[in-house]
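Hey, resending since the last one bounced:
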Amino acid sequence: MNANPEKYRYYPENPKKLELKEVLHKMRDLRYFYIFMIPAWIFWGSGAMAAVYTWFMDDSVIRTEEDVIGVVIYNAVILVGLGVIIGVYILVNLAFKNKNIRPAILRNIQKYIPETDESIFDKVQEDLYKGMPFLKNHNIGISENYIIGNLNLNGFNPVIIPRAEIVEVGYEIYEGDSYTIPYNGRVANVRSIYQNFKFVLRNGNVVTVQVNDKFKWNLALSALQAAGLKTVNVYKKNEVQK
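The structure tokens again:
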């Protein structure tokens, strides 16, 4: 495998960036929101180009005081539009970041480890402050004692799994349909790569975590292996059992 999980080590100097809500926000997949905002950027960019053109108009075009006022108002509208777009980005990110999803996370954990109570959040936070060997958006997070994953492919439904409870991780990676997503400032057509990880726990329950990383399909697997977890190819395991 050519994936390098070392690139995604997360040891920021500012401890606030290791707070659970910050870590969860970094894991979110906001690509659909960015796609939704593309038309707004295109519309604003067209207007901004026209605004720049007004800076170079001479007296043959701008003849009256009303013309000057119109140009000033138009440029002010373009600046306000930029502020609105940036404001939307900030507000959406703050809304997601400050949303209290701890009750949902606790319910998710209790589905698989019923005896878990709210004290797990203090333990997880203490662990996160040590830094994380791996953290990537629309992927997974790995700390010294916990795995943070997502139970849904396209929505954000996180679960936290104590590493001490994990016996092995079954994985299945396969291709799906193609569709369009933003990538490095442009739009790209990609094929869905489904990455399912089945965390087998000591109590016999299985937590299925789904990864939505289209361009680094084997990165999560490499990160789990680098963390020392036993991984098993689900397809090959099924073939052996047959």
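The two ends are 28 Å apart (CA to CA).

Sorry for the duplicate.
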